[in-house]
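Sorry, I am new here, but would you mind making up a protein's amino acid sequence and the tokens describing how it folds?
***
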Amino acid sequence: MADRILVPYDGSPQSRAALELVFDEFPDGDVTALYVIEIPQGYWAQLIGPELQLPVSEQVEEHAEELLQSASDIATEYGRDLETTYVTGEPDNRIVAYAESESMDLIVIGSHGQEGLSRVLLGSVAETVVRRSPVSVLVARGDGDR
């Protein structure tokens, strides 16, 4: 059973579907919603690492906090506790690094659920997380199907 569950959350319907899936299917799990503030490649290309935290503007931090508050509101609707946090960097790398560094048991990530294969089906971030994650990954389709 997954005790510690990471849900990458960006406020999209896909990430909401992933969070709701976790609340429905893992009633005893400790859930963390992670928002990644994407830093353009030119800024981080030579600084990649699990502890990378580039400075961001106050406005960007406020946006991250607002998005994560929406995740907390969903948790409240389900009567669940939710830890929230944000990091900076390249989303797929940061999700995998966070799951590893925080000893997560499972990542539940949303995908757009459109027809196609691999990257088209999952989306590039979800596909990379699935390939590189040291822990199990459950992909939740954003159209309500699982």
Summary: DSSP finds six helices and five strands in the chain.
